[in-house]
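A quick aside before the break. I want you to see a complete sequence-to-structure record at least once, exactly as it would be stored in a machine-readable document. Don't worry about memorizing anything.
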Amino acid sequence: MDASKEQDTTDMAIVLYTVLGGAECALTKAALAQRDLQYAERSAMDYAPALARKGYDFAPVVTVAVENELVAWTGHRPDLIELFADLMDTGVVDADGLRDRDTAEEAVLTRFQVVLELRDHQANAQEFFAEHGDQPLYRGRDLLNWLGY
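That is the input. The structure line, written in tokens, reads:
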């Protein structure tokens, strides 16, 4: 990984909100550890009102800021942990990153990046999310395929 990519991912600190004895919390901690993803653990009970205001009603809650965008989800989501680990390995896609097909195929995009790409292609974001789910992270190939590339 080059220094610029390393710079992009060093500020991505994971915060994991858990409850004692939560099975999904334990699975999420194990999955993060398996991918060598460091995280700060906090009590979901201590932050319950703030989490609920953001729509997160059950633990675990995984949060991370990616270029000023909050990427977050609830529950044990190995698919999103894998995507996030890949994002940490490759770094954030730059403005020209989707122009190279090979790079774009494996790229990991945040929801906001997907919205921007869809807007640039004058495509309907609601249709994309209806087909691919409303999640915080997506694989570049899913967006490219949906756009017909």
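Two observations worth writing down. The CA atoms of residues 31 and 78 lie 7 Å apart. Confidence is low (pLDDT under 50) at residues 1-9. We'll return to this after the break.
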